[in-house]
Amino acid sequence: MALLTFKGGIHPDDGKSLAKDKAIVELKPQGNLVYLVSQHIGAPASPIVEVGERVLKGQKIAEAGGFVSAPVYASVSGTVKAIEPHMNPTGATVNSIVVENDGEYEEVEYKEVKPLDELTKEEILGAIGEAGVVGMGGAGFPTKVKLSPKEPDKIEYIIANCAECEPYITADYRRMMETPEKLVGGMRIVLKLFDNAKGIFGVEDNKPDCIAKLRDLTKDEPRMEVMALKTKYPQGGERQLIYATTGRAINSSMLPADAGCVVDNVETMINIYRAVAEGKPSIERVVTVSGDAVKSPGNFLVPFGMNQAEIVEAAGGFKTEPEKMISGGPMMGFSMYTLDVPVTKTSSSILCLTKDEVAANEPTACINCGRCVDACPSRLIPSRLADYAEHHDEEKFTAHEGLECMECGSCSFVCPAKRQLKQAIGSMRKIALANRRKK
Fold this sequence. Notes:
Elements: E1 24-26, E2 33-36, E3 46-47, E4 54-55, E5 60-63, E6 72-73, E7 78-87, E8 93-101, H1 121-130, H2 143-146, E9 157-161, H3 171-178, H4 180-193, E10 198-204, H5 208-217, E11 224-229, H6 238-246, E12 261-265, H7 266-277, E13 284-290, E14 298-303, H8 308-314, E15 324-327, E16 334-336, E17 349-353, H9 357-360, H10 371-375, H11 382-390, H12 394-399, H13 410-414, H14 421-438
Parallel strand pairs: 1-14, 9-10, 9-12, 10-11, 13-17
Antiparallel strand pairs: 2-8, 3-5, 4-7, 5-6, 7-8, 13-14, 15-16, 15-17
């Protein structure tokens, strides 16, 4: 049977061999924990603790600041040292709660949970929202909101994004290999919210061991199916995943729910399971530390708020001083100039590279080869959009569907002229979206 995929895309060296076979190692932080009150799309959480107060692991320290928001919990026990601005992995300054770790990890007593069959849909959604679960693949959209569409009866597919198409990142792969039952358990919980839905696990075919494990676990689940996807970037993009698994297409003005779909990634599904089946808040995640500058690349289960420099040290530190450090993957991640930033709910990877190959390339004029057009998964003409962006021509940019760009970087990757197409298009897209909101 043909592998499921989409039009366009690229095949970069995935670099996954550096950390793919490294089992998850749980880390205990040594220094202070910094909890950003804005780790999600929507209103920042509001601190509910005071400086000098002792908190326990699993204690809520900031409550949701609105409907589209999420609470924040302490991942260690200790004393609140400050409530002050700190830098996040993308370089922005965010109000934060600083907790001095006492090393005791004294934990709150969690409420006893009921079996899934005895829970109502409202109770399930309440548990997910109260636990502070958000989209942990990068977007950070509050999961309770995502699972509360206006017309739940029209949702036909719950898609678990198991593609992990970004190079180097292997956190989801290790989760699928080591705790697949929690992933399936998370799917089972979400399916209870949608009576007419089918659960799909979309896994790239470079992970045959994960496909086999999930198929074995779901063989007696009539509402679940494991689909093998063609290994291609950006297979894990929301639009591409929906098209590959269901044949349905969405654009920038639509939500997945408009196509009868809900998409959540592996780490999010596992946190849904922890919230509902175990009654525990979202306080930790698996982070991949990789790149040729890292001495011992690996995958680490780390608490939110832990300093990223500590995690790199746990991976043996640097064997060579890196020229480039990235939060996330090399295609859609954010460049960092310091590791003195905390792990957040959306921190999937810390990538450290000996050479900054992008900065070393000097862009030249477009040669009109059309490679960017072939690679674009949104079926756009990136070279033309970049021209409009560079000339600040917002009218032509929007007229030629510039808002449909998903900023995956495929165009920049294949460009022989080394033009920074994604950066130019992304900047103009943000301006155009901001102006649209004003209107």
